[in-house]
Structure formats: C-alpha cells, structure tokens
Amino acid sequence: MIFMRFDRETLDLGPFAFFGAEPGKPLPDITGMKVGKHTKGNAHGVKAERLNIRTIPLSKFEKLNSIQEVVTRLFGESRQRSPKRHKNDESLRNERP
After folding, report:
1. Using an 8 Å Cβ cutoff, are 6 and 12 in contact?
2. In DSSP terms, which residues pair with 3 in a beta bridge?
3. Contact at 8 Å (CB) between 78 and 85?
4. What is the distance between the terminal CA atoms of the chain, rounded to a whole angstrom?
5. Is the dihedral of CA 79, 80, 83, 84 positive or negative?
6. Residue 47: which region, alpha, beta or left (left: phi > 0; alpha: psi -120 to 50)?
7. Longest alpha-carbon distance in the chain
8. Could you give the CA distance from residue 14 to residue 77 in angstroms, rounded to a whole number?
9. pLDDT tens for the 97 residues of the chain, in order
10. pLDDT at 92
11. Where are the alpha helices (DSSP H) in 3-94?
12. pLDDT value at position 78?
C-alpha cells in the first residue's frame, strides 16, 4: 500500500509512505490490527464493523522520499541491462547501395 502526498501549490509529489514487503514476499500480517468500520451508521447510528478491512496506523508505514525509492520497494533493485532492439530498428538494417 502506498500513500502519496503532494504540494498543493506546485503539485510536486512526495513524500510517500509504503506498507508492504519485499518483492515476491507476502504482505505483513494485519490480522491483529484494528477492524475498520462503515462510515455511515445504521438507523440507530451504529457503525458496523467491516471484518475484511483493517486500519493500518501510519507509524507502520516506511517513509520514502522519491518515486525512485517507491519503484525500488515495489520491484526491487534495478539491474541495468542494455535496451533490447526491435527487429525494425533502423540501426539494425543493412543498407545496400
């Protein structure tokens, strides 16, 4: 899960908050966290619990300062590879006179 903040005047993005695990790993256990409730009450004003929803405190999130940090947390460290060339790439064609 990612929270994204932005500057209202400039619309610059960041900081970000990340809750999750390493790429390919299961999410952290949230079963012990507070159960979410409906935003509207019933006829008696009671807000029923939403058993499949959990409220995750912001303190459980990791602060990330850039979109590159977000990408790294989501997909892991990048490995620089040379770009693949498409068969129609002009640089691959043999020009014949």
Report:
1. yes
2. 17
3. no
4. 57
5. negative
6. beta
7. 86
8. 20
9. 999 999 999 999 999 999 999 999 999 999 899 999 999 999 999 999 999 999 999 999 999 999 999 999 999 987 666 566 666 666 555 555 5
10. 54
11. 67-75
12. 73
User: What phi and psi values does residue 35 have, to the nearest 5 degrees?
Assistant: -75, 135
Residue 77's pLDDT is: 86
Dig out the tokens for 30 from the structure.
């949230």
Report pLDDT for 29.
93
Phi, psi of 17 (to 5 degrees): -130, 130
Taken in order 2, 75, 72, 24, the sign of the CA dihedral is positive
DSSP 8-state symbol, 91: G
- Per-residue confidence (pLDDT) for residue 13, from 0 to 100: 92
Let me know: does 54 contact 37? Beta carbons within 8 Å: no
What single letter denotes the amino acid at residue 39? T
Please give the torsion angle defined by the CA atoms of residues 24, 27, 28 and 33, in that order, rounded to the nearest 10 degrees: 180
Element (H, E) at 64: strand 62-64
